[in-house]
Specification:
The protein is of the alpha+beta class and about 475 residues long. The protein has eleven helices and ten strands. It folds into two domains: about 220 residues, Acetylcholine Binding Protein, Chain: A (Distorted Sandwich), CATH 2.70.170; about 200 residues. About 45% of the residues lie in helices and about 20% in strands. The strands form two sheets. Strands 3-5-6-2-1-8 form a six-stranded mixed sheet. It has a four-stranded antiparallel sheet with strand order 4-7-10-9, covered by helices on one side. The longest helix is centred in the C-terminal third of the chain and has 65 residues. GO terms for molecular function: extracellular ligand-gated monoatomic ion channel activity; transmembrane signaling receptor activity.
Amino acid sequence: MRQPWRFILTSGFFLLAVYLCQCDLTCKEGHSGPTYESMQTVFDRISFRPAVNLSNPTITNISFTLYAVLGVNEKTQILTTFLWLRLYWHHQFLVWDSDACGGVTRISLPVKELWVPDIIVYEFVDDDVSQQCPYVYVNHTGHIRWDRMLRLVSACNLEIFSFPFDVQNCSFTFGSYMHTIKDVRLTPALSFEEMSGNSKQYLEASGEWELVNIYGETSVLKFGIDEWDIITFWVVIKRRPVLYVVNLLIPSSFLMLIDILSFYLPPHSVDRASFKMTLILGYTVFLLIMNDLLPSTANGTPLIGIYFSVCLALMVISLLETVIITNVLHSNSKKYREVPHWVRVVILKHIARMICYQWPEELVQPSASRGSTQDDKTDRPNPTTSMLIPLLFLGPGVVSSVPELRQICQDLSDLRAHLTSMQKEGVLQEQWCHVGYVLDFLLFRIYLLLISCYAMVIICMWCIWINQ
């Protein structure tokens, strides 16, 4: 039962092939170009692949020029580009003798009247809304060239960790939607170096992105028992970081520099904590304003976002350091508490020597001069004592009998006690001030070390990504 049907189908395809072979275009004498009637015969067979022998695949050549990068959406992982796409294929029924047709070697025909290979981009995620070119160029040998503008919205795995110094590598896979490798074969019309050079001429001075390179390969896509011929182009683009460096990195660096310089404010006479709190508030407002410039994605956080977060954390740490120093400087107000012995040994001796703390001149005098000063103070008569000496010769009875003299003695005793307490308070305050200054110097150097290490790590990571 199957043999007659197989014979009929084979005979039908053979007769169709013989009939199509006789469909070369004809020309009338005195007219240039093929006749309308002969071309209409070809137009009526638009549904058939234009091959005399259907077992031979139609060779389609592809090339494109990347004209512009219209948008990169990191959150949805979508790349929008504008391509100038050019397709070449051979139509074996659109062939004529140029000598017999008045020397016409090329004509333009409407693309809707011809068979067109169903080439698509596998990564597309949205419809093409660009203007379509309604005509194609047909050579007298049957070779067709179709130029079209393509607004391509494609999926791409966007890496934003090194933003704004990021380099993106997106793939464009061209292939037939329906025809397998037995019907349509794909080859690049130009070399990948030529396509990359042509694209750089148009993309060099446009937009935020610059083209690094275009390279690709041809391969076969297998799905079940069917195989499709595909061409994969990898488009490597790099972001121009000047806008983000000027608007994000430089202002943030200036605020961090001001935070570092605020350590030079004297902590005992200036409210350094209020200044740092104002600086943190300004940095927070800066981050809120510049939040729209930062890319957002669920896959990860860009390095610049980590940079801003760490900068804010460092500002908070510097504020905590100021709170600690302020608390140390006001420790003497707690009932004139003396500096503990271990604090004198650890902070005023070892740590001060380690950080090269410069002591005041009156504290670094030689021991001999300090001893002579103490002797001078000892030998020097006390004003209160000198005033009491004449009263001792009057006798206790006289002093006690005169109310005015007794009041004078009481006032002098109170004055002496007040002067003694003030002297003790001054000594304690001076000791606590030096403890606070030594801690301030130590924490400031640790803060500078943290910022320096952090800046080196950030710069090295960005340089590694740039070189890649």
